[in-house]
Design a protein that fits this description.
about 375 residues, alpha/beta, Ferritin, TIM Barrel, 8-stranded parallel β-barrel, 13 helices, about 10% strand
Length: about 375
């Protein structure tokens, strides 16, 4: 065994790299059903093994798990992931970091190893893109990527609800929440199924207001819970672990409970006077600002009386996603309103990203990949 431990380092880094890539590969294969992405990740995994062989170290023959001082080092965060996107995010970070270690060590081994270092550098750049593609694929339809959710309520629609639904999809809505308090269970099931049939081919998530049982029965993407509805844990059991569970919060205490319970997003409001809940108190910009400061990584939807006239105030307070009803469903052109809201919110997000400090040691190709620790807030 080499006394300097480089063989053990290469063995451990190789395992870490391949394990991280394998997690991404399995997510692409079994969750995204993306054959091309899974195949590309599999090719990267084998390329890493080939490059390690070219470096010339002995690999498994040098392994000393019992004597590895790092096996006892860990953090609580390693045993908690707030969602499947965070799993991919962590796997991508683990794999790219390990490949960087392999690349640097290979540079010390002469001409043959130097060729392996160049191969590993190319692999690392490809892996940045493939990891980002996996995260992006898993984020589609997930609250972290939403900007506009439309509460579809027939009584708020100026025209036929189907026409309004088609319009908000055309305008770029990320999600539609079916909120029909007047429908009986059978009628609500029929309505949600009809919405799913229209929205799903367009990649728009469908959320059911209050009723986790209806969400599960109809194959909707998730459920939004009020404070008087099922607890988050029971709703999660009903709709499944991969479904979206959101909840309403009107105070920081309520928001903290949603976060602790593992909600995928929090409704934050009421922002302004609203016809949906005319008697509710208004938290306004102050509550939005307090929520974002307290829970910066929690996806949120600022809700209650939000529309084109006051979305600027939402943005100024730190809100980066909204849930809207009357301002869209009752508009002459729902598509135009949704498109306007989405553009302004997305512009704010782009400005946030541009203002983030960059690490000069990272390659330019890695910029903007979205590979970060945990889920970015929206």
């Amino acid at each position: 065994m080499r006394r300097d431990g480089l063989e053990r380092l290469v063995d451990a880094s190789g395992n870490r790299a391949r394990e991280g890539v394998r997690v991404l590969e399995d997510l692409a294969r079994f969750v995204l059903d993306d054959q091309d992405l899974a195949g590309a990740l599999k090719a990267v995994r084998h390329e890493i093994s080939g490059a390690i062989a070219d470096v010339g170290f002995r690999g498994v023959a040098s392994r000393d798990t019992a004597g590895d001082v790092g096996t006892a080092i860990g953090t609580d965060a390693e045993y908690e992931r707030p969602g499947i996107v965070a799993v991919a995010d962590a796997a991508g970070g683990r794999a790219t970091e390990a490949v960087r270690t392999l690349e640097e060590i290979a540079k010390t081994g002469g001409q043959a190893a130097g060729d392996a270092a160049r191969r590993l550098e190319a692999v690392r750049y490809r892996l940045y893109d493939l990891a980002a593609a996996t995260v992006a694929g898993l984020s589609r339809g997930r609250p972290a990527g939403w900007r506009v959710q439309v509460l579809l309520t027939e009584s708020a629609c100026r025209g036929d609800w189907r026409d309004v639904l088609s319009a908000v999809i055309a305008g770029g809505a990320d999600a539609v929440q079916v909120r029909e308090k007047h429908l009986d269970p059978a009628g609500l099931v029929a309505r949600v199924r009809a919405v799913v049939e229209i929205a799903r081919p367009a990649g728009v998530a469908v959320i059911v207001n209050d009723r986790a049982d209806v969400a599960a029965a109809t194959g909707a993407d998730g459920v939004h819970l009020g404070q008087d509805d099922l607890p988050v844990e029971m709703a999660r059991a009903a709709v499944g672990r991969l479904a979206i569970v959101g909840g309403s919060s009107h105070t920081l205490d309520e928001a903290a409970r949603l976060v602790a319970a593992g909600c995928d997003y929090a409704g934050v409001g009421r922002f302004a006077a609203s016809g949906t809940k005319p008697g509710a108190s208004e938290g306004g910009a102050a509550f939005v600002r307090a929520f974002v400061e307290a829970h910066p990584s929690m996806p949120h939807l600022v809700i209650g009386g939000v529309g084109p006239a006051n979305v600027g105030g939402v943005i100024e307070a730190g809100g980066r996603a909204v849930a809207v009803c009357g301002s869209v469903c009752g508009a002459d052109d729902p598509a135009e309103v949704v498109a306007d809201l989405r553009l302004r919110l997305q512009h704010a997000v782009a400005e946030d990203l541009a203002a983030e400090p960059s690490d000069p040691s990272e390659p330019a190709e890695a910029a903007g990949t979205g590979i970060r620790t945990g889920i970015s807030g929206s």
